[in-house]
Amino acid sequence: MNxxxxxxxxxxxxxxxxxxxxxxxxxxxxxxxxxGGIPSPESFPMDIMRELTDRVLTxxxxxxxxxxxxxxxxPLREQISLLLESRGITATTENVNITSGSQGILxxxxxxxxxxxxxxxxxxxxxxxxxxxxxxxxPLYIRMDMDDEGLVPESLEETLKTNKIKFIYLVPTFQNxxxxxxxxxxxxxxxxIIKRYNALLVEDDPYSALRYKGEDIPAIKTMAPDNVIYIxxxxxxxxxxxxxxxxxxxxxxxQWLVLVKQGVDLHTSTFNQxxxxxxxxxxxxxxxxxxxxxxxxxxxxxxxxxxKEKLPGEFACSPSDGGMFLWVTGPCGFDMIKLYHKAIENxxxxxxxxxxxxxxxxxxxxxxxxxxxxxxxxxxxxxxxxARAIDSL
Amino acid sequence: MNxxxxxxxxxxxxxxxxxxxxxxxxxxxxxxxxxGGIPSPESFPMDIMRELTDRVLTxxxxxxxxxxxxxxxxPLREQISLLLESRGITATTENVNITSGSQGILxxxxxxxxxxxxxxxxxxxxxxxxxxxxxxxxPLYIRMDMDDEGLVPESLEETLKTNKIKFIYLVPTFQNxxxxxxxxxxxxxxxxIIKRYNALLVEDDPYSALRYKGEDIPAIKTMAPDNVIYIxxxxxxxxxxxxxxxxxxxxxxxQWLVLVKQGVDLHTSTFNQxxxxxxxxxxxxxxxxxxxxxxxxxxxxxxxxxxKEKLPGEFACSPSDGGMFLWVTGPCGFDMIKLYHKAIENxxxxxxxxxxxxxxxxxxxxxxxxxxxxxxxxxxxxxxxxARAIDSL
Lengths: 393, 393
Known about the structure:
Helix content of chain A is 40%, strand content 15%.
């Protein structure tokens, strides 16, 4: 059969996976990967997992294995409502919805809102998983400027003034890929702008709990609640393999998003939601989160030191107080793809930054470095190899 | 904000939820529901769940909580490959893909293949969950005739001859909503027709393991492997709340479907896949499936008897050897919506059959009865109430 002829028109937008090709070599034995975007398995609370599963089996029994509400398992929504309160976000149990990872809500938002050709405003660079959720619905992307203080508010305003934007997508805190955080002062201005323009913001916040220094900055959701779909996840503070994301959206959109999700997966795993509910209800997060931070903080320090000490002076790192990534910009015109191939020869991998930009020729001299998956010593050694690869070019 | 103005063009197709409205009363206290479509919690292997969770924690530890392949957790794919072998379907571990329930693959197939206005051929009546997966991609539906022996092959051939069909969607065994099964003779003809027309069949098989009498009939996939995406699930033979579906598709489509799924949920819960892998690897299904069948067989018998003994002679039931549903057709023009409201007054619910048809005025005199959620005595009493409601009309 000629299956190619059967593909839908949207499918062609799903082919841009050059990054997959380039990262294939990462799994070569002996390669130290600073390319990943995943939490360390040491960060999972394995010491209490048996206690949690036992508790769920005893407390919920077959209910944890039955079909459940598309909106989410009520005991988990109650707990997430409390978690959000600690982040300054007001949401009742009914306001909280659970999805299969935050990928699930990114897909639902795109499916609900994007007609072909609709314009989505994005930070440049932006999170690739969001693009893979949005692409199949055939949007156009409008890039907005960012610097070390995050999204530039003037660029947002200019974008809203000159375009009809369906929604804005931001990762304001410890952004993937840059590790950057939008400052409080800018958040206040951004909130004011989206209210003034009646714009919808999709605020993706997977990393804010992973803060290694400085003080928490409130989500934009707290400043413009009626204009923001706030998205977060338990992947970085519990376990990613359980696929638990959550969101709080304006009521009208919430109802639609539930209907969308029903067609996609009916609901998120009841058992996993019950595990997450017991994790939060038992206050395990309170004691476990400091452990995760103690694991990652020295890794981030080690990488920051290595960048400063080992890379040539023209390689600058964006400041970052948390999350999983650091972002390095080389001298103007420096080709990180070339460096990537050189580094791979020396058994070190990272992600060339150009893949995180929607414009073809942007970000050629940038790179994303992950520090959650390797220990300090390994990070220092790997960065030494990258430095030598730079020298050899 | 005017959120309504933000909705995409596809969204309007998601509004057809009259069935939701009508079923809202079902959760009224005291109502016996024959309206559901869910397995009995008594059918879950709760006696071994602690053993399974313990085993997964010991065997896989943090690996069961980490991100995993979009294609699925390899130990589960190995086991599903063996399960499929027992159904006569040849698939290597690599050929098997895991999704978040079979809803997940229905969504992925639709997203991959349906452009607006594409024609999908369906049995009339058909499975509602498939429609809720397909609708957002804006297809047109072509209805095909079925009778007590399942899809009428001549109707399929006529449909393929006169339309450009993107794919055919069938539930050949113990169909939802009718409980009907396509006979072996017809399957052979259907396989021959789809090969002759180079047509793609999406064969959805959630129920075939739940056979209460008669002999297994091979899937159409076994007769036309290159033309069929075969879909199944562990929801009816393990636990639906774990959301484990699986499929085997022609290689070209498989690769695309994985890319589609990546944008929707990255992957299905690793922990739940590990539980399912241990359930199958430990051969628990072999001993547990007969228990599920022993639970449901007398319930089906009780309902068949009650239909025969209590309903007026003009109410005919489609023969069914398994699954979860029976399908009753009243005398021509009999309005099952009216009966529904009358039955609800007497605290019994069912689903009027018209909701399972894509054509507006079809199936007015039909009803779907579920027998998995109530015991024999309750079923008999509920059917008595329906009989009295019929008398009173």
